[in-house]
Every structure is written in C-alpha cells, then in structure tokens.
Amino acid sequence: MDRVLAESGIILVDKPEDWTSHDVVNCIRSRFQIRKVGHCGTLDPIATGVLVIVCGRATTLSSRLTTQDKVYSGTMTLGVETFTEDRAGEITAECDPSGVTEEAARAACAKFVGQLEQIPPMVSAIKKGGKALYKLARKGQVVEREPRPITIHSFEVTSVDLPNVSFTVHCSKGTYVRTLCADIGRELGCGGHMRDLRRLASGSFMIEDTVTMDQIKSWEREEFLTHLVPLADVLINLVEQSS
C-alpha cells in the first residue's frame, strides 16, 4: 500500500488536561513520522475528552469534521469571574453567590437554550485585524469583538452544589462553553467561570471510542497505523450523516 494512503485516517484521542491540542498533534507527528497531522476542534489546555486527529490525506476533511456539533460535560463556579472565563485565568471580580438558589441556577441555564449570539472571549484564536485575539490579550489589549451566532441544542443541569453547577451541553460548532458559563453567571448577578470541561462527543465520534496519550506513547508506528480509522470509512461516515 502507498505510504501516504497507509497513514491516512483519523484517530480519536482522549486529550489529557494540561495538553494543548497542538501538543497532541506534535507528539503523533514526531513519534510516528507522519508528515501531515491535524486536529478538528481545539480543546483548551484545561479541557479533556474527544479530540479528532486527522492524518495524511484525511487532513483535507478537517473543515467538514470541524463543523459538527459537540457534546460536553462540565462544571461552572459561581461568584468568581476570570479574564479567561475559566479557572486558569486571573480573577477579575468576586461576588458572594450565597443568595443564588438551585431553582434560580436551573432557570438561568434554561435561558441559554436555542439560537443565540455569543461574544467570543479575548483569550481565543479568533482573529481581529489579522491578529489572534489571545496574542492581543497577552499584551494587555482588550478589543471589541463581534457577536457570533451559535445554537445550544440542550443544556441539562446534572447537579447543583453551590457555588458549583454541573451540566451537560449539546452545542453547535464555535460555541465557547467558558463564555456560556460566564454569561450564566452574569445572568444570575454574581458572575461565574468554567471550572472544568470534558468533550463527550464531536459529531458521531464518542468518548467511548478514544484512546489515551499513554496508550499512544506505548505504540510503535505499525501499531499506531492499525488503530487509524481508514480514510474510506471516514468518507462513508460523512456521506451517511449528510444523507
């Protein structure tokens, strides 16, 4: 089989915390000597879960795979706002959330279901004037961002242990869940941020089908190639989803 075709396909990785999406790509590229490796849908370093890795000719499908809906589980913490809208960022405001009831928290979350417009965070890869927002943020700059349309198909509150609210959300491509948490905190009048996040699904790709980075680092090249979903199977899957 042609070398490029042999290394063309996708693998689903359970991205560990504190790894960037590019860290996963770089590890696979260098360890298995695959020239073209990419990912579909960036996960922040504190987030874990499904990261779709495309190899070889499958990289040409990145744009189609990135547009699929996502499902996440996570936890937000009320009463503390941060610059990055998650626990990794500098605290910018604090407010006592003790007056928030479980009923109020659930009602606020319910308001964020449907077609919405979301202002992306400053710490993001979105470009303004040709420069990524996160690069401007590193210089202490805050610029106006245009709201972007998103869809929240469902937002289920799974537990409330104030100040923490755990949830599962099914959303469209381009949704910033940390911004969703910050917006819900503002809706409740006390602020909030995302404490943790785990991607359970990206399109039809599920967390149950992922492999860990520890597994990947234990493989040699030939074993890695046997775990790739072949390019032909990926194409069939895309056709079935669009029909």
List the helices and strands and how they pair.
Layout: H1 3-6, E1 9-15, H2 21-32, E2 37-40, E3 48-55, H3 62-66, E4 70-78, E5 80-82, E6 91-94, H4 102-110, E7 114-118, E8 127-128, E9 131-132, H5 133-138, E10 148-161, E11 164-171, H6 177-187, E12 192-202, E13 205-206, H7 213-218, H8 221-226, E14 229-230, H9 231-242
Parallel strand pairs: 3-12
Antiparallel strand pairs: 1-3, 1-14, 2-3, 4-11, 4-12, 5-6, 7-10, 8-9, 10-11, 12-13
How would you explain this protein's 3D organization?
- With 243 residues, this protein is of the alpha+beta class.
- It has 2 domains: 3-67 and 204-242, Alpha-Beta Plaits (2-Layer Sandwich), CATH 3.30.70; 70-202, 2-Layer Sandwich (Pseudouridine synthase), CATH 3.30.2350.
- Helix content is 29%, strand content 33%.
- The chain contains 9 helices and 14 strands.
- The strands form 3 sheets. Strands 1, 2, 3, 4, 7, 10, 11, 12, 13 and 14 form a 10-stranded mixed β-sheet that branches.
- A hairpin with a 2-residue loop joins strand 10 (148-161) and strand 11 (164-171).
- It is elongated and about 65 Å long.
- The two termini are 31 Å apart.
